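Record type: monomer structure entry
Structure origin: computed from sequence
Chain ID: A
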Amino acid sequence: MTTTAAPTASVESLVAELLTQQWLIDLFSELAERQQASTAATEKLRARDAATHVFWPFHSPQFPLVVREAHGSRILDADGNTYVDCHLGFGAQALHGHSPEPVVRYVTEQLAATTGNGYCHPVEQQLVDLLGEFVPHCEKFAFLNSGTDATAAAIRLARAHTGRRMVAKFEGSLHGVHDLGMHNTAFWYHGHPTHPFPGNAPDGGVERQSALTGVPLADPRDLLVLPNDPVRAVELIERHRGELACVITEAASSSFPFVEHTVPLLRSVSERCRALRVPFVLDEVLTGFRFGPGGAAAHFGIEADLYTYGKVLSGLGIPLSAVGGRAALLDHTQTSGLPLTDIGRKTCVQTTHAGNHLALAASYASLRLLHEQRDTYYTETRAKVDGIQRRLAGFRGETGIPLRLVGFGDFIGSFGFLEKDSYDDYRAFAGAVNPIAFFLLTLMLRRRGFYTLSLPMLFTGGAHSTEDLDTLVDAVTDSARELGRHGFPFVLPGADGA
């Protein structure tokens, strides 16, 4: 079920019309009644806590939950409602689910003896040795707190190594919330009538565009935005090779999740960067340890100078990220220890709580558990997702409703409505995405006992049973049928991808 293109001016009226229909008002009322304790608690919290629980600018959580307990794939909210959790802490708990017993036990043992931060601890060596088995292509590591920290540190290390300042990133990619990362992201839903795509910049790249207020437009000497076109991207890298400190890209882009198109691009860029001696940074914050033990880099055979890790690197939600890669770059943060000797010759990426011992212990215990399960974990997870995809394909054939689970690596996906299985162009895909569908599917799944935050994401792994996922498919297909009965436009009118 689709609609024809509509004038730009009609989009806002369409949204207003959709969201004021009586059946949706009834849905909102039902959720408000169901979550009274959570709603009251979060409203009180927001009076003093401005940012902790905000996600995706311009698309904050609807009816946020206060979670009292979480085990495996289940969460219990303040009102006593139990949900199957598809969100899993932005995917950070996706490996084993919430509170896996071996990880909780190991971290609890460490609590009695650790200083927390600021000192060397035996668990650091344990984790480094274990990471060496997972990602042997990384010669050294620097531990940090967040994915944003990791990508910012990788950029600093590349700049220190080359003495250059320009960073190249791809249009639509997301590398954390530091200022360079917050340019030309998917946050603005480009391709829809009210948000046209930026034009071309004088340097030949995509016109730079800040994604947020408070983020100044980057100097062209600092940022080059590459199109998702292999020929043009390589041409721009060659043209600016004398200015580039690094090229950074997601190993599998959340904004263009079609590896059949992105992997050849990454291989081409990686090879050209190596030939030009331009450091190549592969952002594996989302993909590390998910595609396989060695992440997307090993799975697809992509070589980089630096790799960034986060999300499932951590355990129990204790913040941890890392930069790994060639010693020649990471050594720029190691000093001689002699007073005054290294001033002006070295850089720094460490922070007070970076690599604190509890975070390292949780990571070690979680990855050790994954290492024990490595012979079956990835095949079993892929089999679960294959089952979802088969059922959705059958649903599309039966109903004509273009419901899909679009993801990458079979471990991260989002439910949505798209006319095609794959898109060979980032802009065509971005324009086809319907953010109103995200909003509604999230709430409709909540009604049916499945929790996502503000997008209908599914982070799969060891937490979800086959029964969990079968029931989830029932819920999302029932939701799609309900939308169809009410005349929902599955493809947003006036979008470039419509």
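Annotation 1: The domain at 101-368 is CATH 3.40.640.10 (Aspartate Aminotransferase; domain 2).
Annotation 2: The radius of gyration is 23 Å.
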